[in-house]
Amino acid sequence: MTKAQRCKAITRRGTRCEITVSLSREGFCLWHDPKRTEQARTARVRGGHEAKKVRKARRLNPDTIPAEPQTLDDIIAWSAWIARCVALGSLHPKKAQAMSRSLANMRTALERRDLAKEVEQLRAEIRTLRRGKS
Asked: Which residues pair with 10 in a beta bridge?
């Protein structure tokens, strides 16, 4: 297997360019080829506009965000809302992943809290039953 050809340009850091696609006959990528500067400029401008569109599209309207989750049912609703936002492109998948992790942590905390309450209730019932036997 042969190693892919890399762009011949030396970057500002003094290392060789890592790009291996769209090389010219002279061995330069789009960004380093002096004969394709206009094409590179057009690509940069288009890319900048596309990035702005993406950022703008991913801003969430605070009015559409569900209320702060308090229960396990709220966490389920939030999870569904996150999945919908990602599918519609209004929430970046990385943010969705972080939000989902937070919800998972909250779910664990709620389950532990509820279990601790249940254990305390059972202990109280056992104390009552023991007093009745005496």
From this structure: 16
Model's pTM, two decimal places?
A: 0.50
Q: Of 57, 75, 99, which one is at a domain's C-terminal end? A: 57
Identify the domain containing residue 14 by its residue range.
1-57
* C-alpha closest to that of 25 among 16, 12, 38, 35: 35
Q: DSSP string spanning 80-125?
A: HHHHHHHHHTSS-HHHHHHHHHHHHHHHHHHHHHHHHHHHHHHHHH
How far from 6 is each of 19, 20, 37, 43, 90, CA to CA, in Å?
6, 5, 19, 20, 37
Q: What is the pLDDT of residues 6-21, one digit of tens each?
A: 899 998 899 999 888 8
Q: Do 34 and 81 reside in the same domain of the chain?
A: no
Instruction: Provide the CA 123 distance to its chain's centre, in angstroms.
Output: 43
Q: Is 7 helix (H, G, I), strand (E, B) or coil?
A: coil
**What are the phi and psi torsion angles at 49 (to 5°)?**
-65, -40
Give the lowest-confidence range in 18-27, 47-56, 60-69: 47-56
